[in-house]
Amino acid sequence: MAASPASSATETSPDNSAAPAVQIRHLNYFFGTGELRKQVLFDINLDLPRGQIVIMTGPSGSGKTTLLTLIGALRTVHAGSLQVLGQELMGLSSRKLVGVRRNIGFIFQAHNLFESLTAAQNVEMAVELQPQFHAKRTQATEILGQLGLDNRVDYKPESLSGGQKQRVAIARALVNQPPLILADEPTAALDKKSGRDVVTLMQKLAKEDNRTILMVTHDNRILDVADRIINLVDGYIESDETLDTFNTTHDPKNLDQQMFIL
Amino acid sequence: MKRTPLAVLNLLHERTRLLVAIAGVAFAVLLIFMNLGFQGALLKTTVTFYDQIQADIFLTSPQSLEISTTKEFPRTRLYQAAGVAGVERVMPLYLESLLWRNPETRLSRAMFVFGVNPQDPVFAMPELQTAAARTILVQPDTVLIDRLSRADFGPQTVGLETEASRRRVIIGGQYTLGSGFAADGTLIMSDQNFVRFFTPRSFDQINLGLIQTSEGANVPAIAATLRQQLPADVQVMTRRDIIQNDLLYWLENTAIGFIFTLGVIVSFIVGTVIVYQILYTDIRDHLKEYATLKAMGYSGRYLFVVVLQEALILAVTGYIPGFIAAFGLYQLTFQATNLPIEMTLNRLILVFILTVIMCSLSGLISVRRAVTADPAEVF
Question: How many domains, chain B?
Fold first, then answer.
């Protein structure tokens, strides 16, 4: 029995290269229903052009992850407009949302690798989402090589270190060369050096191939890779600045109230 | 290039769990095989009885239930039947039980007795076709004993003397019939001896009337004529009718058919629960990974197929050892009880289908968890 993922993927999400990677207009989002209904995102307006690395920060509970999962087509949009790679997600059926996800690379806080599969097989699982995957092994070893895992291709996750596992997860997210990469605390489980390596790798790949990366992080050590930093507080976009401005406004020397928010 | 066989790799990753699962399925398969085996053997014994009786039409009392629970009826009915066109020969069969004493342990057990006219070719067993066998049968207090009678009846040596229903009895010879659930052992004796052993029974009251039709006769038509002509104190049955009647008796009027069907159902449920436990644990352990697959763009259907594949792999790998164990136990049961318990192709297929249904059912119950895995929860 051959298991084949739904074939609707490619038709439903044309990668319109002219459009910005993400365009959000008046997005509101609620959790719960009726009496318990609670709004978590308020009137979000955001454009992410191609090739930009954007870091989203903010206190916990501010709605960062919710926004990330909305952009990643993992949740249904309630109100407003959310376009990802030129595709409007508002009102899209869950079957079509699955198709949109195939053009997005996800990197999670936990690596979420199958313990039963080798590093290469875990990456190949992503390649198999493509209509053609006869070269999956080559593609997998190639990207693992780029991430410095040449010698670990046939290792299972249990014999890899935390940093290596996270790099396998990144290889899995990048192997299909998705135009948009969403990462949630990719360095949280890593030590300083591994975290740095991972972020530098992502930066290199983004710049070389004009990918858009949206990263949620609390890790101040990696802010320098960002082209732009968005600060989300209580469901509102509090600030949206370039790295330089962000550094000035958040410099401890300028005793500004904002530093307590970060 | 083939897809990564996720189902196989997931199962192989947890070796201990896989072995437990296979053992569980094998156990359920074995239980189902044994229940069906006993049921089949029971049915088969009621049939083999009649296979050795050389008659096309049977007369019984309407009050008879099956061969070991019969009511006598007048022998005259048999002679009346003999007058019908197409009837070649009629033969009376006397049936009773006596207490046979095991000469070694001195314990008595009930033995089923066929009383026949030594000149009548009632049975098809080759041992009874010789003139010598007829000579033995006409000797007083001499009987032939079934080799397949239970060992509890004691030795079956020719010439052995023991006591049956307070009379001396001599084993004159042996034959092979098999007695099934109706009796633990059988004897064949002449009608003369029968009347002696079972006083006050007479020649005039018989238990089964055997009718042989002439070569190429239309048996159902003759049976219909007999039904018309004979009074209502006898029942006319063709070979198929009487076999069907006995089968139905055991299946419906005793607990035996019910017990084995229940046994199959219980085994099926046990198997379903075991496989469900294994699959559910596997899904629970991999929930984050499954949700990740969905985030990557795999559909719920893909996960559904993976879980179902795991279920089917368990079905096949559990069926094989279950079948082998059942085959061994069938042999053992046959040696211990002489029940004609046999592995038939139909049963092999039936149990395989049941196993596949059992595992798929568990798969379907547990798969919901994987399919509904919310990719948004992974973050």
Answer: 2
